[in-house]
Amino acid sequence: MDSEATPVKAEITLRVNGAEHRLDVDTRASLLDVLREDLGLTGSKKGCDHGQCGACTILVGGRRVNACLALAVAHDGAEIVTVEGLAEDGRLSPVQEAFIEHDGFQCGYCTPGQLCSATGMLDEAERGWPSAASEDLRVDPVLDDDEIRERMSGNLCRCGAYMGIVAAVREAAARREAAEA
Amino acid sequence: MTDRLESREKVTGEARYAVEYPVEGVAYAAAVQATVGRGEITSVGTEEALRLPGVLAVLSCENAPELRESGDAELALFQSRTVSYRGQFVAAVVAETLDTAREAARLVRVEYASEPPDVELRADHPGLYKPEKVNPVFPSDTAQGDADEAFAKSAVRVEATYTTPAEHNNPMEPHATLAQWHDDGTLTLYDSNQGASGVQKTIAGVLGLEPSQVRVVSPHVGGGFGSKGAPRPNVLVAALGARATGRPVKFAVPRQQMFATTGYRTPTIQRIRLGADEDGHLDAITHEVVEQTSVLQEFGEQTAVPTRMMYKAPHRRTSHRLVRLNVPTPSWMRAPGETPGMFALESAMDELAVAAGIDPIELRVRNDTGHEPESGLPFSSRNLVACLREGAARFGWAARDPRPGVRRMGRKLLGTGVASSTYPAYMRPSEATARAEPDGTFTVRVAAADIGTGARTALTLIAAEALKVELGRVRVEVGDSRFPKAPVAGGSMGTSSWGAAVVRACEGLRGKLNGSVPPEGLEASADTTDELKGRDRYARHAFGAQFADVEVDADTGEVRVRRMLGIFAAGRIVNPKTARSQLIGGMTMGIGMALHEESVMDAEFGDFLNRDLAQYHVPACADVRDIEADWVEESDPHLNPMGTKGIGEIGIVGAAAAIANAVHHATGVRVRDLPITPPRLLPRL
Ligand code: FES
Ligand code: FES
């Protein structure tokens, strides 16, 4: 049994927030644990470790992913953005700014996941991906409050900051649209 | 309208929570839970676990160091072979990595001599007893006049039993501790809690240390809602693990283990009787509460306590009965007492309004009182009626047709409901220091906790006002037991208690300052113990009115809250921006209580059956459509230098009743057992 019990390691490369990391990871380790414990990127939070709360949401190849459900070894070569990578040169992203403006958080523990989720979600909507709240699947979705609430429902906030979160995402979406127009 | 001062840290991921501090050579703990609900541990097999490479230690009742008694039997970690409830921590592993620790915990073989556990709360349980007091120090029972006789003679009567289930706080950050021992025998705990001073004192006591030998660091805490008000066994798992291995040890309680080991709200069974005259004036109120505690430790939720002060009535009786079960010890969860108690009382008031044919707001207005009924003390201020009136105007109550079950929109039945809200304005002694720095800035320190309440921001506003300087020159530091001793962030008393000490320290500093600040700075400290002893006797409470607008799907029984409005009277509001969020947060949790949250006890084996966030549903983004919170101006000179009453808990109080009352208005069905889920509602539609 010893051979089974000895941790199996694998070498992988992760690009996180633009920096490349060569890592020897336990094949059992989740991306979340590798980010938090090996890379010291503790911005991504662990609320449940079971894909049920969204606190660990990160962007992998631009898409939102629950880092607690992703095995690190399966993400060799992945391009990852965490909450630490949302601001550019110390300038907060529009989503981050809108969260402060609308008080979209209290304790802040769900916040990194909310921010990554909102960032990824705005891209999904822009690409025309529908959600369960989309009335017509043939046209590009309009991010009204129902759409935002549906698309943000994978991120729990026990402090109950949803009113602020929805207002913040609404504003970030509007600003993005204005920037593109 | 001040932004949270730590906003930037929180949106960039820089804010560090308990197990996120970088320390050299850290190891990880994983805990083993009892798999039986009652019994004795006969053996703990650790061989297999210890053979795993990377395992550093296994701790259990067979080798744990002796701990001192603390008054909280839940903290007697690994001190006995007795299993009091299923899910109790019986062993812990420390290993080089999280994965190894978890794997090793699975390999620890604990054997038990077990007996059938007694886990079911029933109103006729033979073990029911009258506790000496309920949380924190209220008498179990009270009586005025002859409530039975008055009730029997009343023209309009309501008699009903309401139940609330066990509910779990479930802060998003789990209970978590990083423990590090130093060469001089002192201990640092980076810990997620609601009060560093309290954790320091309690844990030092348990470990046989002086408080000065334990430092608790917790500048950012990912929520608590009461469950982090006192240290839990997780602190000791980390501290003992670190001592056994000579390494710093992290232990964050896995979500599934939180349900048994970090506290919850007791289920309640509440029988209420209201007797009134034809005009709705109450003559008799009785409120009899049955709830559970554990075989380890008594905790009696003060569920009937709000009934003692809410409405005028000459005849009144309240009581609490507990039964000791093989269950985890219940504890504080947002507004303990008021939350379940006001669900029952305010549902009953709605039933009385229907029975008497009186508008529910009018009914409450008629039973308002200027004196606290049982104590006879005058209220320092009581603006319940103002909240009801203001809320009614803004909610559009006047146009409401009182008939239940007559508004239909397609498949949806529509209805609105109202309930009163209240929470005491507690205060406890606190210390604080204020320092003038030579660079013209000020540093204020108090071992307060900002668990998401906005305490840091509110205290900075308070300090700047007391110092008469602009906000940017003041830095308030909280969340460290090295700072002046402060009471817990609980009982909605944080801002009032810490703020008063901050004001006094700042006033003291201003008295000392005469122009220039010496190079070493200038400091003043304050302790409000004496000031609080000298306060005049008043009944001090915040009040509020909760309004809910719901739709019920007639085919599925699903209830959705379309809109909620809460109007509160809570003294002076220090920072409207964060205050509004906190009140809305409480109301959001109220939606959870009304519609979703229920921890189900496994009647055969013990422990809760639903132990994760998929099976214990807390409100998600899509559950919250439109919640508005606001307040009426209230200036109360009998509180504290700021004039604050506290807002952390009142937002949840009455919210579930307003929703249940709206469900009745929509459907004509009175649901007296929370939560109002489709299986409870649909068969009755
Ligand atoms: S920690 Fe990943 S979803 Fe909860
Ligand atoms: S801000 Fe506390 S959980 Fe969302």
Automatic annotation (TrEMBL), chain B:
The keyword Cytoplasm does not apply. This is Molybdopterin-dependent oxidoreductase. Keywords: Molybdenum, Oxidoreductase. Gene3D superfamilies: Aldehyde oxidase/xanthine dehydrogenase, a/b hammerhead (3.90.1170.50), Aldehyde oxidase/xanthine dehydrogenase, molybdopterin binding domain (3.30.365.10). GO terms for molecular function: iron ion binding; oxidoreductase activity. Residues 12-116 form the Aldehyde oxidase/xanthine dehydrogenase a/b hammerhead domain. InterPro entries: Ald_Oxase/Xan_DH_a/b (IPR000674), Ald_Oxase/Xan_DH_a/b_sf (IPR036856), Ald_Oxase/xanthine_DH-like (IPR016208), AldOxase/xan_DH_MoCoBD1 (IPR008274), AldOxase/xan_DH_MoCoBD2 (IPR046867), AldOxase/xan_DH_Mopterin-bd_sf (IPR037165). The keyword Cell inner membrane does not apply.
